[in-house]
Amino acid sequence: MFQTVPEGAPVLTAEAMRAAEERAIAEGSSVAELMEHAGTGVADWVHRLAAGSEVLILCGPGNNGGDGYVAARALAHRGVPVRVAALGEPKTEAAAQARAAWGEPVESLSGETEAAPVLVDALFGTGLTRAIDATLAETMRRLVAAARLSFAVDLPSGVDADAGNTFGCDLPGYDLTLALGALKPAHLLLPAGASSRTVRLVEIGLGEIDGPVRTLERPGIAAPRRDAHKYSRGMVVVISGPMHGASELAARAAYRAGAGYVLLLTGGLPNPPHAIVRQRWSEGALDDERIGAVVTGPGLGRDDRAREKLDAALASDRALVIDGDALHLLDLDMLKDRAAPVVLTPHAGEFDALFGAGQGSKIDRALDGARRANAVVVFKGADTVMAAPDGRVTVAPMGNSWLSVAGTGDVLAGAIAAMLAQSSVDALGAASAGVWLHGTAARMLDRCFLADELADALALAYERAR
User: Following DSSP, what letter does each residue of 344-404 receive, concatenated?
Assistant: First the structure.
């Protein structure tokens, strides 16, 4: 499944969202007015896509349900056949006013509720803190499965807005999730994010929203300047170990992601592409001042020889991408006083080994790791999170599940190194650009690809990034 979300959009926690709403109210708005904006915005999307089909709106007892009542009224005014099924009476004043303004019959939501071609879930929003009833979850799955088109208002009902948990429930997937005011972590983080295939933003009158957490966006990479040469485009060094294939993939990826010169320090036999310069590891291998970035970890091994190479990389003044085996050998204390940029690229197991299991959402954990390491952390996975020590975070939409094949992490390390070597962006920008290229290349290949093919496809993704 490819997930589509707005690029470069702020991502707010439930608390930050409440604060934004309170600011809007303090500046003269009201809960009812925000609800009117939200429900009307939902109705716009449903009207546009429902093509006149009957719409069933499920309304909960809170303000999310109030948004649903407003949407029902707006759709009915446009001549769309609408039914409303509710869990019970509204429990907030604004929601009660919205139900009264709807003025039409309201069914009781139950296992007997009749399905409709278009389903709108406005049951629960950002305030949910526990699992929804199992019978209700089954009813939701049935109604969503029977609909040809399904919408979730703000969030799919049954998720933790901040952590992306589903409290153990198996929730349905919605065709379109309409984020009200701003995206929430649950739109992007697993397992909840799997229920939001496409996310679109509905403005509700909060004004301009900003924050340190944003979604991944197209990096806008420029073509080489007319006076460019191989070193100005970035020299990348990849330190190899016993598993030469992994480092070969990283080196190949660095070239395909735009590096001008790639040096592979290896004891392996030469393999295509022959443009990769291969030399044996030596004590002064990293002394060349033209080196823009060093990759260590892919295929490095975990023996004493590997530790010596990692120590040499850490002792250098080069920008580093640390991946794979090197993450298991790394001492975080060696990074704290380092001036040159460092990007760590752990998957879940490597992250736990490096930072511990920890608490909180994936965003919280990535940010904590970045601060502890004084480095940019790329917490890999279907929901990849990039965090910088200064508090900035970038979250990537869920990508191609066919990336779950050996070697794709090595390709990502090489792509990030190529971005880092060009020194036109900071470490978080380089990591984000590398993740964007990596994900775009995977989408272009679609399915059943090798990591070698992914590395080559970076060149095509690079064109799309310009």
Answer: E---HHHHHHHH-S--S-HHHHHHHHHHHHTSEEEE-SSS-EEE-TTS-EEEPPP--GGG-
